[in-house]
Amino acid sequence: MIIASGTGFLGKILIEYFQSKVDTITVLTRGKSRIENNIQFIHWDAKTLGDWTKELDDADILINMSGRSVDCKYTKKNKDLILNSRVQSTAILGEAIGRCKNPPKIWINSSTATIYRHSIDKEMDETNGEIGTGFSVKVAILWEKIFFKQQTPKTRKIALRTSIVLGKNGGALQPILQLTKLGFGGKQGNGNQRISWIHQTDFARSLEFIINNTQIKGVINIVSPKPITNAMFMKTLRKVIKSPFGIPLSKPLLKLGAEIIRTEPELILKSRNVIPKKLENNGFKFMHPNLDCALQNLTN
After folding, report:
1. How far lies 238's CA from each of 50, 168, 182, 200, 211, in Å?
2. Which helix (H) or strand (E) segment is 209 a member of?
3. How far apart are CA 249 and CA 240, in angstroms?
4. What is the enclosing helix (H) or strand (E) of 34?
């Protein structure tokens, strides 16, 4: 198994999950090459060919987690970094696969559930979901376009339209948890925006399921079965951690806060109303389909 850019939040979740299930994991990293137990870290720059390409020959699985964090202010410089880090890494992996005598059997590439439009009224699945507009959507469209454009006839391709992954050691849950502990755990904006989420274990399990079910291909939504409103998400979190009250954060206050910490209010205010139709139709069973139980597990 090869995990490209596997030292971030999601990469670490996959390493922890798969480490005991496969013989070796090769992590392509911008850091130094090294070996830790059955994990070998190989240096790459995510945009040019190099010695790392040898690792792809005879590999069974390639998972690409590359992409600069979107938790930043959308300046021109940051927009270029967000887009290029996704498109360049995907293109160079495609080129490397094309040079393999025995290429990976499956290539799983990150994408995002943000590709769908802001939706309160309609749940978005892989077939009938409506594509949105704006910078984040443009990135997602170009990312998937360059991915499916790669000529890899011997390699099955999957684009992961992942929403918020709830985890113990990073990701979106931790800052929200800290805000809630400080008393700011009320609804954000009007609270009607939908949140599509998935527990970190189900995130890893869903990838394992996709790998083992060879009929699955193309785009796939990686989210739990039922989106929840922001207001209900925050209410559930307050209940789980026994926070006695939660001050709501209005849209103007959120915009001001986002400006201060140099990020975008879209990350909180966009309604991601996404459902995992392909996963469920193929028989995937979630271990943590219920938000209350998922948060209990992650905050213990």
Report:
1. 49, 17, 11, 20, 36
2. helix 200-212
3. 20
4. strand 34-36
Residue pair 28/4 in contact by the 8 Å Cβ criterion: yes
Q: Which residue in 60, 108, 104, 130 sits closest to 206, CA to CA? A: 108
Question: Model confidence over 260-299: pLDDT tens digits?
Answer: 767 787 878 899 999 999 999 999 999 999 999 999 999 9
- The matching CATH number, chosen from 3.40.640.10, 3.40.50.720, 3.30.70.20, 3.40.50.300, for 2-166+196-225+272-287 is 3.40.50.720
d(CA 26, CA 32): 13
CA distance 252 to 266: 12
| Long-range contacts of 131-137, Cβ-Cβ distance < 8 Å, separation of 24 or more | 134/266, 135/74, 135/79, 136/70, 136/112, 136/266, 136/270
pTM of the model: 0.95
Burial class of residue 78, CB neighbours in 10 A (0-12, 13-18, 19+): middle
Arithmetic mean of pLDDT over the chain = 94
Q: What is the dihedral of CA 190, 266, 108, 53, to 10 degrees?
A: -160
Report the Cα 114 to chain-centroid distance in Å: 10
Task: Tell me which residue has tokens 């945009």.
Answer: 47
Place of tokens 């109303």: 273
